[in-house]
């Protein structure tokens, strides 16, 4: 099998079964040299399982795995030239930070001078130089995770694998370490594959995101493409906080409108990706942040008066809940808005920014 020179990790026809349970389903994936790829999805979708297969921690049922054009399908993890960072830190509690960082190198027989040089470089990058003589029990969660990342860095490998490394940290630490991981990738330019269920981590870190569900990659593309042009309703609903508004209705009789209740949305500006039949049942999706409010709404191709039912202050802005065509409908307004529960306001949007899904939940 020929693997492109620009490909760092290649997964071919990979399947993994646990008895009769099919966990990964004939999966193919190519990760480019120096790419930051995020595997994103809900719990149980197979993202950590796929990462563990690439790492060699799980034996696959069928298929092949290549790292730097080398077939590593049946190689031990230590022979795959990877560095892995786990959710649980996995540090040796009786060893100092310095000993934790050097342990793998010492076992491999790396010369002492080279070990010292690698530890110095990694600790400078991660700003853990003052912690080298401490033991893990004396470190905060964020410091422990920096050490865990450092232990992978000192191996000086081409591919780094991250399995939800920030999920045990509080929101502030997650934000800080997310920035550090981004800086690290920009500096090292190594290939990184990162597993998370957190869409903010995925959107901010990734060059490309692979959204997974049920052991299948639903969509693999750049973050903004996935966000703005989701291939199906699952992807559309999984990304976005708050989630996309979904309106259940029908294509109009002349296929130029979307009908939901007594509301008619013009579709002249919407680009259909396949032919659509008049009167076909569809789901119309539009994100809350794409909704104009008040006087700005009247300038949009579609606008309508709605009644404010619930308001959720979010700090920087406020999420407003109303109804459109009998469906729940949310939109964002500035925090300093003057709306109150029970008010009637005008909302509007450009259908060109919408996503329409057929009865099988695929984008049309």
Automatic annotation (TrEMBL):
In which broad location class does this protein mainly occur, judging by the first location in its UniProt entry? membrane
- Molecular function GO labels: ABC-type transporter activity; ATP binding; ATP hydrolysis activity
| The entry's keywords | ATP-binding, Nucleotide-binding, Transport
InterPro entries per UniProt: AAA+_ATPase, ABC_transporter-like_ATP-bd, ABC_transporter-like_CS, ABC_transpr_MalK-like, ABC_transpr_MalK/UgpC-like, Mo/tungstate-bd_C_term_dom, NA-bd_OB-fold, OB_MalK-like
Q: Which GO terms describe its biological process?
A: carbohydrate transport
Q: Which SUPFAM superfamilies match?
A: MOP-like, P-loop containing nucleoside triphosphate hydrolases
Task: Quote the SMART domains the UniProt record gives.
Answer: AAA (SM00382)
> Domain ABC transporter spans what residues?
9-239
Q: How does it sit in the membrane?
A: Peripheral membrane protein
Q: Which CDD domains match?
A: ABC_MalK_N
Pfam families for the chain: ABC_tran, OB_MalK
Cell compartments where the protein resides: Cell inner membrane
What does the entry list under GO cellular component?
ATP-binding cassette (ABC) transporter complex, substrate-binding subunit-containing
Query: Can you tell me which family this protein belongs to?
Result: Belongs to the ABC transporter superfamily.
Q: Indicate what this protein is called per its UniProt record.
A: ABC transporter ATP-binding protein
Q: What is the lineage of its organism?
A: Bacteria, Pseudomonadati, Pseudomonadota, Alphaproteobacteria, Hyphomicrobiales
């Amino acid at each position: 099998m020929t693997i492109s020179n620009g490909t760092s990790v290649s997964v071919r026809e990979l399947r993994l079964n646990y008895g009769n349970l099919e966990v990964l389903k004939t999966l193919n994936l190519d990760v480019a040299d120096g790419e930051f790829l995020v595997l994103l999805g809900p719990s149980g979708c197979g993202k950590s399982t796929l990462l563990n297969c690439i790492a060699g921690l799980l034996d696959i049922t069928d298929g092949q795995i290549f790292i730097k054009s080398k077939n590593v399908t049946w190689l031990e993890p230590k022979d795959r030239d990877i560095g892995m960072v786990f959710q649980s830190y996995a540090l040796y509690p009786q060893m100092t930070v310095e000993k934790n960082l050097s342990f793998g190198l010492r076992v491999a027989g790396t010369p002492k001078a080279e070990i010292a040089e690698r530890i110095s470089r990694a600790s400078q990058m991660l700003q853990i130089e003052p912690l080298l003589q401490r033991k893990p029990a004396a470190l905060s969660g964020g410091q422990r995770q920096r050490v865990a990342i450092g232990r992978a860095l000192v191996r000086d490998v081409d591919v780094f694998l991250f399995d939800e490394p920030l999920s045990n940290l509080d929101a502030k630490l997650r934000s800080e370490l997310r920035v550090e991981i981004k800086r690290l990738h920009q500096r090292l330019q190594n290939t990184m594959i990162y597993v998370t269920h957190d869409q903010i981590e995925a959107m901010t870190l990734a060059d490309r995101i692979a959204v997974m569900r049920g052991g299948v990659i639903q969509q693999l593309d750049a973050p903004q493409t996935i966000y703005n042009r989701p291939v199906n309703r699952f992807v559309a609903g999984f990304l976005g906080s708050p989630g996309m508004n979904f309106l259940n209705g029908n294509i109009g009789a002349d296929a130029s409108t979307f009908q939901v209740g007594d509301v008619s949305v013009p579709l002249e500006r919407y680009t259909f990706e396949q032919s659509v039949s008049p009167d076909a049942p569809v789901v119309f999706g539009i994100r809350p942040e794409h909704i104009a409010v008040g006087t700005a709404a009247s300038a949009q191709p579609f606008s309508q008066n709605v009644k404010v039912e619930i308001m959720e202050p979010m700090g920087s802005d406020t999420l407003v809940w109303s109804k459109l065509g009998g469906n729940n409908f949310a939109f964002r307004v500035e925090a300093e808005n003057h709306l109150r529960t029970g008010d009637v306001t005008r909302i509007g949007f450009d259908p060109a920014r919408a996503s329409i899904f057929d009865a099988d939940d695929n984008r049309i």
